[in-house]
Specification:
heterotrimer; A mainly alpha; B alpha/beta; C mainly alpha; A: mainly alpha; 80% helix; B: alpha/beta; 6-stranded mixed beta sheet; 26% strand; globular
Chain lengths: 225, 234, 224
């Protein structure tokens, strides 16, 4: 219990440190000034979200192969956490875009693909609520999760190829576009902090899921009596 | 009926568990069925009879444990043994005719000379004159006969019947009992689940009662036929 | 290996069933028709505007229609538990998927080709000079839609709210097809039409990737 609290505190500290670095250590960007600093959260959250979905994919594969409940629990945990991070990405995008470009949404290739990604994993969660029997739910959502993840690079590819033909404001340059070495360091630190937060959240959610499934077993056996 | 070209097949269930969510539908079921035995399974609804048969049909994967088949000619390779399965549902297409249904499944199972085989079976189950009618127009008894014909297309050495007499009128039950008797006498291994005594249950050479997913009684180990069957709905 | 013969036999059954009742085909055709007509109310179908918007609307209509058309795919196999009969009879469960996706591709293609003339007339787009390329795009896209849709309909058939669930699962997944097909179609409707080989290749790759995924995981979709 104390160990978890301490780890949580440490993760929070990391995130706080990353925030501090974003605001005070990283040099100000020439064109966007203060506004650009949101990039450190936005892009780092995107990477952390994608990693979470990758963890979900691996958990799905493991469930289909081994049929052990823990892989299903890991799958739902990582999907939810991933979705939370991606939601942050989708919200910080428009927050940045409005003062920068005057419009909330720009159909920037990455943001658009991220939106589809968000829809896919919302569907994953929705599917789970619509299947009652736990083993069926685990198997079918794992299979959908696999198909969904396979689709992700294809979605990004298609939108990048065809939806960037027309000039559109690009929401922040790529991670390496800030050539300043300090900026890069701050960025990678943010990515680290976000990943730490992601792993911590998945672990906590997983614990919760285990408690829930254990409770379900007891409840069903009690009902059967 | 001419003796079918097969060698009798036995089954072995080893420590079978089947879990649905938190509940065990079958727990630690171990059972050896000798080639040619005709086993009657009795038990309340939910005792695991259907699950056990569906595992034998390999429609359901056990959560734990194994199922294996054994025969003299084939070296126990479960993959190649295909039981015939008659379930509660008819498992035939309402929108196709009896003949089309049987031809479909005969071709899928790569039965030799499918048209002849279908012809033979239609005669055996007494549906020759209704071969070109859509199954949708059939009575329950007739559908059951199509289902049985479907199960027999590939001349299986093992037959699985899950409450096959449900919905049949007394005439239908008599016909079914006769059909099962002939199959049993030809050396096929038969597993069937039933609800109590009837013409069909008396065909069994062995009876087993399932209770809450476990074997509660077995004529092999001393229980009487009658006791197993009459406690079925207790 | 009995995979292809099994699939062929099952395909025959799928086709026979559908052509006997023609339920799926007629309802799908009418649905796309309604969508196409309704879309035309939302903008002025002058030649230039049409060329820009029409391809997207066409593919949107096809996608929506397919997400409805594919619902009965595995649902109807629950009636009388015929799915179990199929699983018992075939040597490779992938044959079931192969047959169904082939049938679905055919049905989709048929409805698309049936509606193409009407679409061309209503939206003033020149279809005849590029007809063979259009057929190619229709085929590759319909194949992709069918592969993914058949797999997903096996999933949705086992869930609640399946009527709404299948579109929910299919539409985000098929965005790449929407984008690629629209783009290729758009280029074909240009004043000087040209073939976007990038798009055609992309569709083919999509089809291959998901067909492989279905082949690898299909049997688990049918598990009880």
């Amino acid at each position: 219990m104390w160990k978890r609290a301490m780890i949580g505190a440490f993760v929070l500290f990391l995130v706080g440190a990353a925030a501090y670095a974003s605001f005070f250590i990283a040099p100000e960007e020439k064109t966007m000034h203060v506004l650009q600093r949101i990039f450190y959260f936005h892009a780092a959250a995107a990477w952390a979200g994608m990693t979470a979905f990758f963890i979900c994919f691996v958990a799905n594969l493991l469930y289909v192969w081994r049929r052990e409940e823990r892989w299903d629990s890991l799958g739902i945990s990582s999907a939810e956490v991933g979705l939370a991070f991606i939601t942050v990405v989708l919200i910080t995008g428009p927050i940045w875009a409005k003062p920068a470009w005057g419009i909330y949404w720009t159909w920037d290739a990455r943001l658009t693909s991220t939106f589809v990604l968000w829809l896919l994993y919302i569907s994953y969660l929705l599917l789970r609520t619509l299947i009652e029997e736990p083993d069926r739910r685990a198997l079918l959502s794992a299979l959908f999760g696999i198909f969904a993840f396979i689709d992700v690079p294809i979605v990004f590819g298609a939108i990048r190829w065809w939806r960037t033909q027309h000039p559109a404001p690009v929401i922040m340059g790529g991670p390496g576009s800030g050539l300043d070495p300090t900026m890069n360091k701050v960025f990678f630190f943010s990515v680290l902090a976000m990943h730490a937060l992601m792993v911590f959240l998945i672990a906590e959610r997983y614990r919760l899921e285990k408690l829930r499934t254990d409770f379900e077993v007891v409840r069903r056996e009690a009902e059967a009596i | 009926m001419t003796p079918p070209p097969f060698s009798p097949v036995g089954l072995r269930f080893q420590n079978i568990d089947k879990r649905y969510g938190g509940l065990l539908a079958l727990r630690g079921v171990s059972l050896v069925v000798a080639p040619g035995e005709c086993v009657v399974f009795a038990g309340r609804n939910g005792s695991g009879k259907t699950t056990l048969l569906r595992i034998a049909a390999r429609l359901v994967r056990p959560s734990r444990g194994t199922l294996s088949f054994s025969s003299e000619s084939q070296a126990g390779d479960a993959r190649s043994i295909r039981p015939g399965f008659v379930a509660h549902a008819t498992m035939v297409y309402d929108e196709l005719t009896a003949e089309e249904n049987l031809l479909l499944f005969a071709r899928l199972q790569e039965v030799e000379q499918p048209e002849n085989r279908v012809e033979t079976l239609l005669n055996e189950v007494g549906l020759s004159d209704r071969r070109a009618s859509l199954v949708r127009t059939f009575s329950r008894g007739m559908r059951q006969r199509v289902a049985i014909a479907r199960a027999l297309l590939h001349e299986p050495s093992v037959l699985l019947l899950d409450e096959p007499a449900t919905g049949l009128d007394p005439q239908g039950v008599t016909w079914l009992a006769e059909a099962i008797r002939r199959l049993r006498d030809s050396g096929r291994t038969i597993l069937m689940s039933l609800h109590g005594e009837s013409d069909i249950s008396s065909l069994g050479t062995r009876a087993i009662r399932l209770d809450a997913g476990s074997i509660a009684a077995d004529t092999r180990t001393g229980a009487t036929f009658r006791s197993i069957l009459t406690f079925a709905d207790a | 290996m009995s995979l292809l013969p099994n699939a062929a036999v099952l395909l025959g059954k799928e086709l026979r069933t559908e052509f006997r009742s023609r339920e799926l085909l007629t309802t799908t055709v009418v649905f796309i028709l309604i969508v196409i007509v309704l879309f035309s109310f939302t903008f002025d179908p002058t030649s230039d505007e049409s060329r820009r918007f029409a391809p997207g609307l066409l593919w949107l209509a096809f996608l929506f229609a397919s997400s409805l058309m594919l619902q009965p795919c595995f649902l109807r196999e629950q009636h009388n538990d015929t799915l179990s009969a199929l699983r018992l009879s075939v040597s490779d469960p992938f044959a079931i998927f192969l047959a169904k996706l082939a049938a679905n591709t055919l049905f989709l293609l048929l409805t698309e080709l049936l509606l193409l003339p009407l679409f061309a007339v209503m939206y003033n787009v020149p279809v005849v000079p590029v007809l063979h390329w259009l057929v190619l795009v229709f085929f590759l896209a319909s194949l992709g839609i069918s592969i993914a849709g058949t797999a997903l309909s096996a999933i949705s058939a086992q869930a609640r709210m399946r009527e709404l669930l299948l579109p929910l699962l299919m539409l985000p997944l098929l965005t790449p097809i929407l984008v690629a097909s629209t783009e290729v179609t758009k280029s074909l409707f240009e004043r000087t039409p040209f073939v976007q080989w990038k798009g055609i290749g992309f569709l083919a790759v999509f089809d291959l990737v998901f067909l492989t995924a279905l082949w690898l995981f299909g049997e688990y979709l049918l598990e009880e």
